[in-house]
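tool=predict chain=A
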Amino acid sequence: MHRSIERSYLSFCPLNGDIGEWQPDGCMKVIDRKKNIFKLSQGEYVSVENLENVYSLASEIDSIWVYGDSFQSFLVAVVNPNKQALESWAEANGIAVDDFSSLCQHPRAKVFILDQLNKVAKANKLKGFELIKKLHLDPVPFDMDRDLITPTFKKKRPQLFKYYKDIINKLYQGRN
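tool=predict ok
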C-alpha cells in the first residue's frame, strides 16, 4: 500500500471507524472503514474492499470475498464464478464435467480463474502482497439465506469467515 494509506490508517475517527486521507487542501477524505483493513504478517496493510472492487472487474466472476490472516503473508479468496463464462471456457478447453459444482472443483478451473484475477490485478497495478495466491470456487452465490450478505448486498465479513473457515484453513495449509 501507499505510504499515505499507511499513515492514514492512523487517521480515523474512533467513534465511527472511518479511515481518512489528508488532502493537500487540508481536508480529510474518507477512503475506507477500519474494519475493512488488516495487516499481513510482513507488515503490509491491505484494504480488502478496494481489492474486491478491483478483482470484481474480471468478467469471469460474479462475486469475490478476499481474506487475509495477520499470521500469513498472502491473501486467499472465495469466488463465485460466472457460470456462463466458466462453462464456455471448459467447453473450449475440452473439460467435461457433470455439473457446474463439479466444474468449480476442477483444478484447471481454479487455475483459469486465478489467472484472470491476476490479469486484472496487473492491469490495475496491484502490488505483490495484494495478489490472491489461492482461491476456492463456490458455485452458490453469496446470499441472505446463509446470512452472508445484507439486504443491500454488502458482504458480512464475520459471517463469511465463519461459514468458510474450514475452506480458508485448507487454503492456507495448501490443501485446496
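Confidence is low (pLDDT under 50) at residues 1-12. The first strand starts at residue 18 and ends at 22.
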